[in-house]
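Let us begin with a simple case.
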Amino acid sequence: MRIAMATAVALALAGQAAPAVTAPRSTTDGIWRMDGYGTVLSIRDGTFQEYQTTTVSCLKGDSAQRTGPGTYTTPDGTVLTVRALGDRGSMRADSSVGDRNLRRMAELPDACTRPAPKGPLAAFDVFWQSFEENYPFFSAKGTDWHALRDRYRPEVHAQTTKDELYAVFSEMVKPLHDAHVAVQDGDRVFAQVRPGTVLPSRELDTKVKKFILAHGLKDARNLQDFAGGRITYADLPGGQGYLRISGFGGYTGDGAPYAAQLAELDRTLDTVLDQERTQQLKGLIIDLRINGGGSDALGIHIAERLTGAPYVAYSKRARNDPADPTRHTRPQAVYVTPAQGPRYTGPVAVLTGGSTVSAGESFTQALMDRPGRTVRIGQPTQGVFSDVMRRELPNGMSAWLPNEEFLTRSGRTFDGTGIPPHLTEPVFTKEEFDRNRDSAFDRAVNVLRKHGGTTS
């Protein structure tokens, strides 16, 4: 645009008629191909329609309706913001921390305009191809995905039942031990976690919370639950604070829109981190040991209450070549900027374990380069960070899989292994329960008291 305007001015000064300068199209209507994510979008007449594509398939995915200029809302309340300038655009979900880049297309791919193949073999091929083109971690997991196709595809035929196909798909993904990988058929879901760990559950959360109340918080003051019970705060003896976060969502009930969750989180943080308390706090324990994840954006929002200076939390990239798992979208930095509301910037001890999952892990990663003293205590996190792609299959089943990596400043990822602690302690083992002992909590109290959040 700058070159075009300079040419127009030069021609006018020379007495020649300047050519008309046409601004790039800003309309979001049209057909868009998303960089990475195997997705094509159709936006027309106020309707947003997703198409999930592979080299062998195109199936309809989520839909949304226009609710404002450039905004579309899905049936579950997720707000999508789409921006366009010419043939480039971007899309962001309100609960996400990154944009997804879009490129305008002339029309839908041919596969999206004709009926999709059906039957067990078609379901197998779409399932296998979805992982083949999007899953980034086969090499790291030591899994030969092509060998699994050669082994299991001959078992599938026109008369294969859903039960049989569900069993085949489950066996294929079992070696990945990836908590962001799942096979779904109606109400049944097959998923596996990293060996030696367990996924958070309501029962485990209740058991652990009762245990902590009887142990570390027995002498606490101002003990209070917030955000639908997902956040607990207490003042500890010695001037320390304890903040337990069991998830990054569900603050106002399941299914509530992100804006309501964010508003409830702000009300919670305004109370927990009020100015009088933050001026007196000598250290803060953040307990993420039973955390089922949720919205990465809510995690960043909490991190913004824990810093007095801006910094990069992490960078995010997605696999971007169906044939080459080493090619990715350009890494997109996610920033933490100091919040306008009350903040705490002193020493922090973060408690983690194998039941720290997904957004619980991205929040842990967002605190790694936090200005100030931050120490991690416990066990490695689960090792799953990506947003989850939910891919429809032609027979009504679906597959869940990750396609993103969250990078540290040095380019490292913690997928599979999880984020390690600085100080290793057992986390909710049978021996800990039997002896009524919480070694990680006790270590955090002592470290903050003696060293102010350093490990020396």
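The second case is a distinct protein. As before, the sequence precedes its structure tokens.
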Amino acid sequence: MPGIATSEIEVSLVSSKGFWLLVDNDELFVSYAEFPWFKHATVEQITTVELLSPNHLYWPMLDVDLAVESIRNPALFPLISKSNPSFQRTR
């Protein structure tokens, strides 16, 4: 039987530039520039977040998973998109 979760997570402020996230007494800023998946999300989608483990956040309404460390140090986790050679555009 699993124990009671002792870790807490809370979105404290949503702005036009990003939002503040409180994770176990650490306040982190999630910038839309660094994390574009949240830019057009609703407040409800942003504030519905789960702490699955001490370093794993999940936004179920957006299907976004993030490591807490990627928010603390986004430069260590660059967004990289590779082209898919089998993808063909239609007109």
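The domain at 11-76 is CATH 3.30.2020 (NE0471 N-terminal domain-like). The mean pLDDT is 84.
Keep these points in mind for the review questions at the end of the chapter.
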